[in-house]
Amino acid sequence: MNPSHQPKRSDFLKRHVLPALLVFVLPVFSIWFFRYAESRFDEGTLKAVETMIRKSDLPESDKQVQLDFFRATPVSRILASNKPQHAELQKLFEPGQLDYAIFRWMKRTAWICLGTIGATFVLVGISVAFSFRSQSAQYNALRIGWPVLRTSAMIQVIGQSLLAVALSYWVTALWFEFYSFKLIALAGLLALVAVAALIKAIFQKTNDRFAISGEPLPEESAPLLWSHIREMAATLETAPPDQIVVGVEPSFFVTEHDVQLGGKSFSGRTLFVSLPMLKIMTTEEADAVLGHELGHFSGQDTLWSRKISPLMGKFTTYIHSLAQGLSFVVALFMNTFWNLYMLSIRRLSREREFRSDAVGASVSSPLAMKRALIKVASYCEYRFKTENGILAEQRVGTGLPLADRLEQGFPDFLTSFVADEKSIHSDIPHPFDTHPPMADRLTKLGYDATTALGDDELVRPVQNSWYQKIGPADTLEKNLWAKVQENIEAYHGLELAYRLNPTNEEELALVEKYFPKLVLSNKNGEAVTLDYQSISIASVPQPIHFSGITGLKMEETLGVRKLAISHIDPVKNKAMMTKIKPLAYICEEGNLLGLLEKYYGRHKHADSQRVSAE
Question: Percent of the chain scored above 70 by pLDDT?
Fold first, then answer.
């Protein structure tokens, strides 16, 4: 296995475990501080009581009795007591009751936080350890661990927010004999943000919909393929897919999630088949891949994935929602357990992939499974490099045919792929989990990973494939690629518009397509004109070119927000400042503040690209 794939245990501790310990800081400090505060108040009160007793008219013996009592019984203990004999004494110290009550409750709050943290570590730690046993154990562990973590997070957010606000007053009051309203307000604001984040996390819904790009393949369009898949499923003693979806994405997968396809929802078992990848594999190699996917059905992997995914989705949403204000440390705490669960999920995921590889080899052959893995890995890598290469091009307009480039260039890429020993460390992308590196999978199949690449059959042209047995395959693939191509060209055009400093009409047309000239008006009918390179304001004789802007700053005076634009006058060649109310100028596309940020941001990005190129 490639060493780069092996995370060091020390790295895991630094990145995930140590940050989680921050959740202890505030409660531990609060316990110490409020004990100290209580002790200091006790000392001060005791001195005042001793002075009062000594100045009293009581007999010396009675004075000594009272002194011994108050020295042995701190005022904090008296005020916290429920004993009837202390009731009269409590009235004596009534002016300080509120302060002492705050100290007591802050200590209790801190202990509750610490106790909750400890209980969470124990309960969820046991849950995580149990999750490594099996997929059903993993699901049940999450069902138990998730509500524990959610409840623990709620207690921590509320408890630590109270501690932070209390400390913001008492730390300065006790040690420096003053209090900062700004510090208290800041702590209160952070506490409110944390509580708001908690409320959002509790009520926020997760999106469990799984949208895929492709077309359903009805049985009448591919009767041989459907029949063959049913036979394979019967051999594996599992139910066949309810629908087969074909697409041009570089992946084969199965799922029992509800899928969204072309505005329609499909439930049950879904098998996704990549048409371009069917072209590069023989029927035996494709059978191995299809058998691998059906192996996920027979092993109930898709069933447990469907059950576990919603819990993981809620877990992720909760952590992201809490990563604000004082609740950030609680999010770090929860993230540690998330990563521990992910260790369990990745470990079982590896085991499922190895099992499914063995299933694929059993319904076809180990040799076909080996070749299929290599071809799939090489095609995925080539697709990634080719697509990124197209998006990096500086050309304007169409003529970026991804499908043609892939089909024409893949044979040569495959030849170079199998000739490079580094290829054995390739990973195979998947929409639901991370597959083990190809080298590990080949080893599990009984092949030496390095010599497996030296199979001459890998680079021979495919004569017999399942693609040829799907009647409408060419039409389906052509239509699917057309949609992909449209998306690529739209994305490439927008990305290019951000990079270009136009030098010809073609480039100018592209930039102005995404950054057209806009006229924004205020309620008085005054207009501001914005284009890709400048802003024109009525009070300024010449357009303010973005290249001449030296600074942008929002200012607020008596509740009125203005944008101060520092720029160079191109005629007089001197520095100027123009102020304008950006929120007052609007058009259909938005207000001036947001649009200027977009247009000026485009200019800065294009300028940085020009400097980098030089």
Answer: 95
Say if 320 falls within a structural domain: no
Q: Are residues 477 and 571 in the same domain?
A: no
User: Residue 499 corresponds to which tokens in the numbers above?
Assistant: 């990079």
Amino acid at 426: S
Residue 251's contacts (CB-CB under 8 Å, 6 or more residues apart) are 272, 274, 277, 380, 429, 430, 431
Question: Within a domain: residue 602?
Answer: yes
Q: What pTM does this model have?
A: 0.80
**Same domain for 365 and 439:** yes
Residues 461, 402 within the same domain: yes
Residue 294: name the closest of 352, 343, 347, 334 by CA: 352
d(CA 440, CA 347): 13
528, β-bridge pairs: 520, 537
Say if residue 197 is in the same domain as residue 235.
Answer: no
Alpha-carbon gap, residue 472 to 217, rounded angstroms? 9
* Mean of per-residue pLDDT scores for the chain: 89
Q: In the beta sheet, which residues pair with residue 244?
A: 271
Q: Same domain, yes or no, for 235 and 384?
A: yes
Measured CA to CA, the distance from residue 592 to residue 598 in angstroms comes to: 10
Same domain, 540 and 412: no
In this structure, the number of other CB atoms found within 10 A of the CB of residue 3 comes to: 7
What is the rounded CA–CA span in Å between residue 402 and residue 416?
A: 20
CA triple 344-256-482, angle to 5 deg = 110
Strand partners, 530: 518, 535
Quick one: 547 and 473 in the same domain?
Answer: no
| Residue 38 structural domain | 26-203
Domains in the chain: how many in total?
Answer: 3
Lowest mean pLDDT among 81-95, 213-227, 558-572: 81-95
Which of 257, 293, 287, 258 is closest to 272 using CA atoms? 293
Q: Which residues contact 458 (CB under 8 A, 6 or more apart)?
A: 371, 374, 375, 414, 418
The per-residue pLDDT for range 282-335, each reduced to its tens digit, is: 999 999 999 999 999 999 999 999 999 888 888 888 888 888 777 888 888 888
H or E element in which residue 474 lies: helix 473-499
What is the rounded CA–CA span in Å between residue 307 and residue 610? 50
In Å, how far are 386, 405, 495, 524 from 482, measured between CA atoms? Answer: 17, 14, 20, 48
Domain identity same for 180 and 39: yes
Whether 390 and 403 have beta carbons less than 8 Å apart is answered as no
The sign of the torsion formed by the CA atoms of 410, 412, 414, 417 equals negative
Indicate the SS3 state at residue 255. Answer: strand
In this prediction, residue 17 carries a pLDDT of 72
User: Does residue 578 sit in helix, strand or coil?
Assistant: strand
Compute the distance between CA of residue 360 and CA of residue 128 in angstroms, rounded to an integer: 31
